[in-house]
Design goal:
63% helix; 2 domains; 6-stranded antiparallel sheet; 353 residues; alpha+beta
Length: 353
């Protein structure tokens, strides 16, 4: 039986790796083309290529579920086309045993996805976004990149941030309780210290009753704010690219600030359920090979995999915002498509068995 497991793993993992390589390669190419309108003296083609390569771990993580689905369809489909699955069944190997043999290598893929999502993607994505924002900003106070953040009555825009506690291009707007602008400032750079941030080259403008009162420049300024480098590393990255630990901590921070954390809750449950989602999609793929797609062409299997994979992704993308609008738990929004896929796979396999 170990020989059978190795044989199934060879076809499934080989096809999955090939599909992942093609999809990610195309996505990288399209992303590079998408960067062309933003090219400038500071952000040239070489910098754009560096940025796109830094996003490679995130793209691998995002496309693992779809690649696992299509890879299993193509790998097992090749065995079915050569009647090898029929020979296995005739030799007394049950459908459940074949499913087990397929799931074993897929578990390695699940562990790879978990490692990427928790340890590699957050760091790589922060580096990528910070690198791009800094290059695109070119020393300007506000740029098309960067990130906005609210802390009490302060609205903050940061062009880029590094994981080493250094921020660049910090624009702050301070409002009073009557929503009147009190102060606007821009700091070229800031470094984190145990007692807070030390901002350098600060240009400030003070206001009173909505009118400019005084402008000046400070060589340094101490900035006391709850926004630590650890939290900042969460702010500059899209929720879906954060680790589950980072999402949980930032959700707690937003709720203490009285701000909405719905997008971060959705991202948390999406990442937490991704391993189960991969297994459910693979189960659907195996059930298709023993059921509706037993004797169809490779092209038809490929189309079926793309349709099912995109349908799964779109259903999660629609149910996520719907949970915010209609008030049901985000866990239900992320779990429902997974349960439907798993049930469909089990029902089809029972009919085939």
């Amino acid at each position: 039986m170990k020989l059978l497991d190795r044989y199934l793993a060879k076809y499934v993992m080989g096809a999955t790796a090939a599909v992942l390589l093609v999809i990610v390669g195309l996505d990288l190419l399209f992303s590079l083309v998408d960067q062309l309108p933003d090219l400038s003296e500071q952000y040239d083609l070489l910098a754009a290529m560096q940025y796109v390569l830094l996003t490679l771990p995130r793209r691998l993580y995002e496309f693992i579920p779809l690649s696992a689905l299509i890879g299993c369809l193509l790998g097992l489909g090749a065995l079915a086309s050569h009647s090898e699955l029929t020979v296995m069944r005739s030799s007394g190997v049950s459908v459940q045993r074949i499913v087990t043999g397929v799931m074993k290598p897929v578990l390695i893929l699940v562990l790879l996805a978990l490692a990427l999502g928790e340890f590699v993607v957050p760091e790589a994505e922060q580096s990528a976004q910070s690198f791009r924002s800094l290059r695109v900003a070119g020393g300007r106070a506000l740029s098309a990149g960067g990130v906005w953040h609210r802390d009490g009555n302060h609205f903050i825009h940061i062009n880029s941030a590094s994981s080493k506690g250094v921020i660049h291009g910090v624009t702050r707007y301070e409002f009073g309780d009557d929503n009147q602008l009190l102060r606007a400032s821009f700091a070229r750079e800031g470094r984190y210290r145990p007692d807070g941030w030390l901002l350098q080259e600060v240009q400030e403008t003070l206001f009173e009753d909505g009118q400019q009162l005084r402008s000046g420049t400070l060589a340094e300024e101490r900035w006391q704010v709850e926004l630590t480098p650890k939290l900042l590393s969460v702010v500059v990255v899209e929720p879906g690219n954060l680790s589950m630990q980072g999402l949980w901590q930032y959700t707690d921070y937003l709720e203490r600030q009285g701000l909405s954390a719905d997008s971060y809750k959705l991202a948390f449950w999406s990442k937490a359920l991704q391993p189960v989602a991969i297994l459910a999609l693979v189960l659907v793929a195996v059930s298709f090979i023993f059921g509706p797609l037993r004797s169809v062409t490779v092209g038809q299997r490929l189309v079926a995999g793309i349709v099912v994979g995109l349908g799964f992704k779109f259903s999660q993308d629609m149910l996520g915002p719907a949970s915010t609008v209609f008030g049901f738990h985000p866990l239900l929004a992320m779990l429902l498509p997974v349960v439907i896929c798993a049930l469909a796979g089990v029902i089809l396999l029972r009919r085939a068995g």
